[in-house]
Amino acid sequence: MKQRTHLLLSIASIVLLVAIIWWADGNLNAYYTRIANTAAIYIVAAVSYNLINGTVGALSLGPNGFMALGGYTIALLMLPVMQKQMVFFLEPLIWPFSEFSLPPSLYLVGLIISGIVAAIGAFLIGWPCLRLKGDYLAIATFGFGEIIFVLANNMLFLTNGALGIKGLPELTNLWWSWGMAAATIFLIKNIVNSSYGRAMRAVRDNEVAAEAMGINVTRIKMLAFVTSGFFGGISGALMVMLISTISPTLFMFTMTFNLLIIVVLGGLGSITGAAVTAVLFSVLQEVLRTVESPLNLGFIQWPGIPGMRMVVFSILLILMMLFYRRGLFGSWEFSWEWLLSKLRRKEVPQCQQQTNK
Amino acid sequence: MRRIILLTVIALSILSMSAIAAEPIKIGVNMEMTGAVAAYGQMGWEGLQVASELIPMEVLGRPIELVLVDNKSDRVEAATATTRLIERDKVVAIIGTMTSGNMLAAGAIAENYKVPMIGPSTTNVLVTQGKKFSFRACFRDDYQGQVAARFAYNELGARTAAVLSDINQDYCVALGKEFVNEFKRLGGRIVAEQYVRTGDQDFSAQLTIVKNANPDVLYVPNYYTENALIAIQAKALGIKAPILSGDGADAPELIAIGKDAVEGLMHTAFWHEKAATNELGKQYVEAYRKKFNKEPNAFGVLAADSLLIVIDAIKRAGSTDPVKIRDAMEATKDLDVFTGKVTIQNGDAIKSVVIREVRNGQFDYLTTVHPD
Which ipTM score applies to this complex? Predict the structure, then answer.
């Protein structure tokens, strides 16, 4: 009975999401559409990043590297052959990429390949690094992001170096971005709630105890790392196909920093937190523009100070960290059970919230 | 009660203000006001402020309003900001962004909306390539590299050259590559081609190779910090070849860091106040000094040029239709702007290149190379 209600509610929410996207696609203006797209891409990036940082509790600073891998892969796959010849004028693009490009109808294939390439990158970096702990892992993964940056600058025959690539078809729309966001949340939620997920949390809470219980710590970390890399790559690819250009500076360390703000603010380990904060983050950036635009009330003239919104943003961040030290959502997750109990005005015991589906 | 009266007065005054003034023509300004390269955006905005005091901010009988948005030196934001300017503020044209990477993202949006966009200092070749609505007020990287090569070959009499460019900057890579191509085409020989990276402090490995190759000229098309450090270390190693650079060297910091090591360093540039022969240029230099109490820079004056190009185009188009403004911009010919005369061709500004030399701790005017 319970299961069936939840299934029905899930189906209903999917239908609702499709209806909202369908409505938004035709009625929102391009400005709001763009903010909505950015928000969804940040959801994919933050929710996948949260899997390593929150669920497994290993501080990784390399998601910008995964995003860059995914971004460059999709760029090489989707850029029309004619554009490839025009853009790579310093050094020609190497075979086979110079000879083919995927048609827009195969965007999904491109996205998945981008994810796989990023996942392979995650595997290669994870192999030596995941034996490290704490600060050492953070430094090693930070190095990974920097290596990707240096490679992108120097491999002119593949990336066009610092000049970057332009002229990509703008394929990311609300369907793709929000579809991917929903898929990411669904898949990662299922992983977290599976036995693998429980093992991940065991590793986070006490590595030695987890190992003593027979959990292969490195393997579990690797699983989280590769999954996170896969979705990180997809988010990078979506972003590149939204702004139609890529160059090494697009995925610098500041991107990781943004994601770190999102997951910490949302509550480490909370998928709900990561997703909601990702949306808040993208929307606030634009809403706060009003504080830096000039104001003319006739008798009062406020000139408008560029950068003001970052000051307001920082103050908000400090306040939130002071009053919600575990992030906005702590480790709380949204669930149908919680919603139903709220509707029935009945409290669910704390321990149930964590494990229910 | 008094509060109500006060509110009514405020509301009425707002209403009357908007009723009296004619509907302004809005020009968007999409700048890097904060973030990694905030200095460029701020210099650009300063230039626009000076320009708007010097020239009548009115066209077609309507006032011109500049709408500034910050793009945080970020590509995703640059694209969003462009959408915002066009959708919400209904601008007829956009000035900015200052850097090429952001312009590539923003230009794609402007192209979709058919709103012209002019980047004051976006020198990357790709910015206007294949685009109808992307313009620039500066010359392209490849052009600057070619001019430097011709100057080295013809004026300096160099037959061998070494190039030391910054692989992390699109601007430096493109200048270096074009210099090499043009220098070879003229009959010269490249004896060393080395790379450095932004933020490097020690260039002795690359400079030792340069010293052993013994070139007639050393071309370093990088930003001022790297250039100054390269000059210091080249001097210490005993490299006698003259150093030639691009407009990235155009900053007082070059001399502050390099001191006497940069003495005699030459570089190509957008302008020099002594070469600013027309009345507008002189006025600009004066007004800028007075307003900001410092020496004018290329980024500011190029942004000011962009404003003139847009206003002139609106005037000639006789309309605020962005597509007509775009056509008028493309037809810009020998327009007097702050840096001299400008003609626009395929979205690129055709301008003279000024060559400057550091003499007695100051940038001095050497010569001007006119477009052919």
Answer: 0.81
